[in-house]
Amino acid sequence: MFRHALCATLVWGGIVAGSAAAHAENRLALVIGQSAYRTVTALPNPANDARAMSQLLGEAGFEVTAAADLSQKDINDKVGEFAAKIAAKGPDTVALVFYAGHGLQIDGENYLVPVDVDLKRETDIPLQAVRLNDVLNTLNSVPSRMRILMLDACRNDPFAAIKQTAGHGLALVDTKTGAPGTFLSYSTSPGAEAEDGNGVDSPYTTALLTVAREPGLSIEEAFKRVRVSVNKATEGRQTPWDSSSLTENFAFVPAPGASATGPKPAVVKRSVEQWRQQLQGKPVEVANEMIVADGTDEAYEAFITLFTQPPYAPQARDWLDRHRRMVAWNEAVLLNTVAAYRAFLVQYPDSDLTATARKLIDRLRFRPSPLPTVAAAAGAPSPAGSPAGSAPQSGPAAPIQPTTTALGPTCPCTAPSPPIKKVDAPPPRKSREPDPPKRNTSRRPPPPDTDDDVVIVRRPPPPDYYDPRPPVGIGIGIGIGGYGGGMGRGGVPLGTPGRRGNY
Fold it and tell me: Where are the beta strands (DSSP E) in 402-445?
């Protein structure tokens, strides 16, 4: 008894000393537990998991914000407030989010499920749930030292309305393709479902509560042990998974006198042949623990070539097949083209993601895009093997594919206009100014007390009616108060009394 008391005292002293070192840096945590679901069976353990994790993280020097049974708006608000706290603490902050509750994938996107969700069909999920990518983007929007997300969120799916068409578990997220300094952990493998457990806490949280308290244990080593512990507790049915882009080391409880963070040691990746040499001659139980702790395709592939006895060999083969399928699915979703989804279906024609892949193909096939037509109108060459004005074909009988950009399909309202060809216009015609009036110099000079009369000679307009009279020449006469001879313009006799002779 004395020995047990002494060991407990030493461990607690190490935790306290490590917590003091951890307080030297800013540590913030948001812990969410979703148990009281209203339209499906409640989950008993997430509330317990959240309380236990809040206590653990508080002892490890985190300033913890705990929340339970949140609606969609509440989750978004809590994440926004948490990001504001990170920004206030500064860029040297370690930010951690722990979520326990339902989570699922729709069309390759992961969602956290609020307690007030009321699903009638698959399309209700994007409207009522919270996208995991939105949480990640919010955390990435503020400078921080590192971001740690732990999701005990792949619980058995109770939503019958979407269970037949949606993929199982959560879709794979590769943190190496995003901002560096992120660690993401799932309670089970991508594409698989986790168990709520029969104890007070879930198998994942139970293992994490034990492992994370060891002083000086790096986060990568801690989750290797979590994988082995959960795999044993569930008899191989559940194996946690993680993805890391951390550039620094991290320990929940630093070793006494040591810093909580520091340079991250280099990771040595072994080939299949190297793993065969490592596993050769080992008992199957020991070899299984080694590959579960490593969690790489190379380790599992080497194992199934050396061991065939159940239950370990079938479990390893199932894990490897599912992981490769989820990697292929992640690549198809990132490309988001008809060709990518068809390639996935060729490789995996009958899986829980088949219906989703076909749906996404139809969605892309019937999405209009004006860009190929505009290119053809502008004289651009058509894609090889396709007529002008059509999209590239993915196969001999492939339907027209839409043209997409990084932000999605191009809207017709934003499509560029075809180039305008310049046409040389003829030079403008110079307008000819009328000749100035000519002064009649053949007439006699006017009397000194009269104005100088000007006679303007104009061409008569063409006749627009039939005149039976013989043609008459233009007569010009000067008549001042008298009679002149000849005919004036328009058939008016020149010299008519009361008119001057300028007609």
Answer: 404-405, 408-409
Percent of the chain having pLDDT more than 70? 65
Neighbours of 402 (CB within 10 A): 20
166: left (phi over 0), alpha (psi -120 to 50) or beta: beta
C-beta neighbour count of 130 within 10 angstroms: 24
Q: Per DSSP, what are the bridge partners of residue 28?
A: 63, 95
Q: How far is CA 435 from CA 428, 432, 442, 489, 503, in A?
A: 21, 9, 19, 21, 19
* Max Cα–Cα distance, the chain, nearest Å: 154
C-alpha separations of 88 from 54, 67, 96, 140, 169 in Å: 21, 20, 15, 14, 35
Q: By C-alpha distance, which of 240, 111, 228 is closest to 184? A: 240
**Tokens representing 256?**
């006494």
146 residue type, one letter: M
pLDDT in tens, 190-247: 999 888 777 788 999 999 999 999 999 999 999 999 999 999 999 999 999 999 999 9
Sign for the pseudo-dihedral over CA of 171, 176, 180, 181 = positive
Question: Does the structure show a pLDDT above 70 at 470?
Answer: no
* Residues 6 or more apart in contact with residue 336 via CB below 8 angstroms: 360, 364, 404
Cα gap 99→32, rounded to integer Å = 5
| Topology adopted by domain 2-264 | Rossmann fold (3.40.50)
The CA angle 266-268-274, to the nearest 5 degrees, is: 170
Q: Quick check: helix, strand or coil at residue 113?
A: coil
Q: Does the N-terminal peptide bond of residue 311 adopt cis geometry, omega within 30 degrees of 0?
A: yes
d(CA 486, CA 92): 112
Residue 140 CA to residue 4 CA, distance in Å, equals 44
Q: How many helices (H) and strands (E) are present in the chain, helices listed first? A: 15, 13
Nearest CA to 44 out of 205, 232, 191, 228 is that of 205
Distance of alpha carbon 323 from alpha carbon 186, whole angstroms: 13
- pTM score, whole prediction: 0.70
Backbone angles phi, psi at 398, to 5 degrees: -75, 145
Q: How far apart are alpha carbons 241 and 327 in whole angstroms?
A: 13
Better pLDDT: 41 or 424: 41
d(CA 77, CA 284): 49
**DSSP secondary structure code for residue 414 in this structure:** G
pLDDT attached to residue 447: 55
Domain boundaries, the chain: 2-264, 268-370
Q: Quote the tokens at residue 406.
A: 């990084």
Tens digit of each residue's pLDDT (9 = 90 or more) over 238-281: 999 999 999 999 999 988 876 656 666 667 789 999 999 999 99
The two structure tokens encoding residue 404:
């997409």
- 387, 349 in Cβ contact below 8 A? no
Residue 156 DSSP class? -
